[in-house]
Amino acid sequence: KFGAVACIAGGVEANFSNSAPKIMYYSARGPDPQDNSFQDADILKPNLVAPGNFIWAAWSSGGMDSVEFLGEDFAMMSGTSMAAPHVAGLAALIKQKYPFFSPSA
Asked: What is the pLDDT, as a whole number, of residue 52?
């Protein structure tokens, strides 16, 4: 188990519970024979995952309003769009290390 509490400027606290690791219901997870419902998966599949839930991200005041916490220059958001930069970065590192790999590798 893990957990952490961070204090952000202005006295705002961010509490990171010990509920990880979980694959969120909105992810593109593979089949899980133990749990085929829309609840969080019990088995970690696929083998590569990236953080995408409750992510602090850059924010524009002209952006959408459906975020969990809104600041002036940042917001807490969740979704596959929050995980995509991590996966793209890892793909770039793999391609750098193994330039002969193809998408089917």
From this structure: 84
